[in-house]
Amino acid sequence: MSVRFVIVKLLRAILTIWLVVTFVFFVLRLSGDPVAQLLPDDVDKQTVQFYRELWGLDQPVGVQYLRYIEALLQGDLGISFRNNLDAFQLVMERVPKTALLGGTALLFALGFGIPLGIYAALHRDTAIDRAIMSVAVFGFSLPNFFLGIMLILIFSLQLRWLPSSGSGTWWHLLMPAVTLGTGFGAQIARYARSAMIDVTNRAYMRTAEAKGAGQTRKLYVHALPNAAIPIVTITGMKIGELLGWAVVTETVFAWPGIGRLLTSAVAMRDLAVVQCIMLILAVTMVSANFIVDLAYGWLDPRVRAQRQGER
Length: 311
What we know:
Layout: H1 3-30, H2 34-38, H3 45-54, H4 61-73, H5 87-122, H6 127-141, H7 144-158, H8 170-200, H9 203-210, H10 215-252, H11 258-267, H12 271-299, H13 301-309
């Protein structure tokens, strides 16, 4: 893998993060005055002006932006207007819960999406294939919040098997993880099926069969490593989307992660907290895509050969 390739990818990643940070900064300033949101309606003008000066909101937006970027480069992500605490500390206290939910949902999605997609591809154009793909389309189309509410109605209110909110035990994790991972798993199933069908039609699969390779060897040695490339790609691209949907899931199940914190911070115009969360989401998504790009060379020898030829 060439050094030039890594440098170009890093520069693109930094540019993407900067664009996200800039967009979020200006959108939040245009969405309303946080002082008016946080203070009572009957507060006097002197108090309002005091807090505007204290939080630097009395300065022109351009000046605020330059100060924010300068502080960001120094590792200062600001102070929460609502709690008067370090915004980064507040967010990092919620990150483990979101990471637990997102990681469990990802494992659930991959655990049922990849096997179902492969099984459907091996039984292409049969009733089994059509049934699996119909379920996948349904799972992908089902709104996240609706699935979560339905699970609560069935397993919490009717059957009383699972808790409807909180995060005290592993049982609290089950429904949020299923809700968050169902749509993603359905997409994985569709991509896995397409990738396997494409691979099985390649010439090297017919060559392996002509050499007497058994069904198991053809599947695990020749088909799966090549079919893994688009699956890894979509997984990396969807990690950021998975974290985005966690906002809805955490709100439905009162899961104490950064998604729920983001919802309350946006409602209260807590600018530093919102900016910090969006920065973390942007870095996570960009890092995932960067890792996927690096994984290409390991998964696909053709990509590795092409990069070596570019040196």
